[in-house]
Each structure stands twice: as C-alpha cells, then as structure tokens.
Description:
Strand order of the largest sheet: 4-3-5-6-7-8-9-14-13
Structural class: alpha/beta
Number of strands: 21
Strand content: 15-25%
Helix content: 25-40%
Largest sheet: 9 strands, mixed
Radius of gyration: 22 Å
Mean pLDDT: 93
Amino acid sequence: xxxxxxxxxxxxxxxxxxxxxxxxxxxxxxxxxxxxxxxxxxxxxxxxxxxxxxxxxxxxxxxxxxxxxxxxxxxxxxxxxxxxxxxxxxxxxxxxxxxxxxxxxxxxxxxxxxxxxxxxxxxxxxxxxxxxxxxxxxxxxxxxxxxxxxxxxxxxxxxxxxxxxxxxxxxxxxxxxxxxxxxxxxxxxxxxxxxxxxxxxxxxxxxxxxxxxxxxxxxxxxxxxxxxxxxxxxxxxxxxxxxxxxxxxxxxxxxxxxxxxxxxxxxxxxxxxxxxxxxxxxxxxxxxxxxxxxxxxxxxxxxxxxxxxxxxxxxxxxxxxxxxxxxxxxxxxxxxxxxxxxxxxxxxxxxxxxxxxxxxxxxxxxxxxxxxxxxxxxxxxxxxxxxxxxxxxxxxxxxxxxxxxxxxxxxxxxxxxxxxxxxxxxxxxxxxxx
Length: 434
C-alpha cells in the first residue's frame, strides 16, 4: 500500500519541492540559529547562494559534536515555548544530544512513520506490539503514533518481561512486531524455551525492525524462528533527524525508500567530505528540509550506504538507501585491515551449528592486535573432534571474508548476553592493553 502521493512523484517534481524547502530552511536557520550563521559565514556561504540542489554541497556539515557543544537548545530554530515534546540520547559518551518538536513537527513525524509502516505491509487491521523502550528514546513513540495514525491497534508493551510479552502476543493476537532484530530473536528464543512455537502458536506476520543494523543473515535468522511467511522490513532514522521515519523498506526488499519531500540524502567520502556520484558507497549525510524546531543541515550520520535512484517495482519513485553496511565509527582497524562487525555477523549466521548470539573482542598483546569471537552452540556438543572441526570451519570462513585470522571461542547454549534494546556486541579493549 502506498500511503501518500508524494511517494510516486516524478524526479523533477521531487527536486522542485526539495529546492523550495531547502532555500526556506537555509534562510531560517541563518537568521535564527547563531551557530549555523557562524558556520556559514566561515564557509563563505549566504542563504542567497543556494540557487540549486547542486549548491547544497557548499553548505557546512553538522555533526553530533555540534549538538553536544550547543547543549541543550543552542541549535534550535524556535523558542522553548513552541516545543511540545523533548527527547534526548542516553549521553553515555558525553553530553546527550537533545531534540525537540513543535506541534507541526509531530504531525510530520507521524506522517513519515505512517508511510514507512505502510511500505512494510502494515494496515489498519494490524495489532501492533511495540517492543522498543518507551522514554527519551524516539523509536517507541515514533512508531506508536505512526501506526496508530494508520488505524492499527497498539500494544505499548515496551521492553523486558519477555514471557509476558509472549503472553500478550498469544492472547491479543498480535500480528505486527516492532523491535530491534536482536530482541525479536530473543522473544522467539524465549517462546521456544517455554513451549510456544512462534511459527504455529503466534500470529505475528510482520516485523518492523529498526534501531539496529539488519543484515540479510539476520533476516534469514528471523525467518528461521518466526516463519518464512513473516515479512521482515528494516526502517531507518535517528533522533537527531526526527526519529524513525526517514526511510524504510517496502515489500520488494530492495532498499529503504527515503521520504524525500522531508529529507535530502547525500553520500560523501568520509575522509574528504566530497560528495560521491550516485551509486557509490560512502557516508550518509541527511538534510532536514521541513522541520521547525531542529532543522539540521548536512548532518553526518556516520552510517555507510549507497543511494539507488531507479524507480522501484512497488511503484514508488523516491530514492532508496541500500541497507546499511555499518558505521564509520563502528569500523575496526585490525592489523591494518578494515573490519565491519556486519561482515562477521554475515559469516556467523550462515553456519548452522551456531546461534545468532556472538561477541567480538579486540585486544592488543605485544603491540599486535588480536581478534577473538565468542559464539554459542545451538546444541551442546561433547565430542572434542566435532568442536575442533567446527572451530576450524568458522575460522576458515572468517579468514576468506576478513583476510585475517580470529580466535574462536565456542560457548554453551544460552551463555552469551541477550539484549532487549540495541545490541552491544563489540568490545575493543586495545586501549586497556597498551
């Protein structure tokens, strides 16, 4: 189902909307947001210089550090009195990033999420169980209001108490699950442990997953536990930009459609900042062109992807983001080799004898980087020779993909940590080992 006519416009019409809204946004932030004005003045760019979408590349970038430096409201373009909602990140590595919304911003957010949900197969007939944590995190409330706007019945169960989550799913007849991929797998695992088969005993047919990278191997694992008929789609957003609703997969599963009348995506070389040609992979940069409270311009997301401009079989003409490869700040450089955790996950989830839970540990010994990967066995194995052969198999497959060796630790089932929110699977301990 296509939710809005703006999803099927001609490219020229999309770009006309984008240019008008970009020019209006640049004028507004230059007048009302002092840090933007300073950045633009330093770059020698004035609002009147933005005559085409091509001129966007001349505007300075904004980063998460800019938001922290101007904590809490220094980048806002409206007075506090105009705000009706405030969210913030956890701030575990410094000052939190604070985001705010006017009444109009919330209406636009709801519209964007409704589009994304419709792309992912949601309808007014669904019973949608939201297993994101409610609170300062934008994911839960964003999906809540977008799905509710469609007419779906919402079960705001949040995270935790997984057995009760499963009871609600069974008793309420939940048809749509909102969760991180790792928590969706955890729910299915717990269900099996208490004698419930998610494929037969539950009615969940749609998974709108986000807040975490969804690899194809993880999608296959979801199908293995929830059933091949389950439609699992990834959606993208971050609180700085709005929350969920920036883009999402349709039922064709060939990239995430960007809501281009509200956001302009670019791909840049993360080292030089130069804009890359269409189809090339690099760092995603997003410009918000229809937000009142916090209209970020050229925000560096640090997410790695590429853009696909060919129209989709679903009928939408909006540009698509390829599902993320990882983040520039997630990339590990190990003995001179660039390693993304997603590469490791793709290998591990393709091996039948081990489960979807793993841990990546990087250390340094005698000035040499060491990579260790802990994985769980699906079933206990008592025969040493079988364990040895499995370990060799995993090491071999990883060496082909990564180009380096890793130490493999095989753990008993149900040993490694489970996550209800965003999974934290990487421990880089090299600073501690200097």
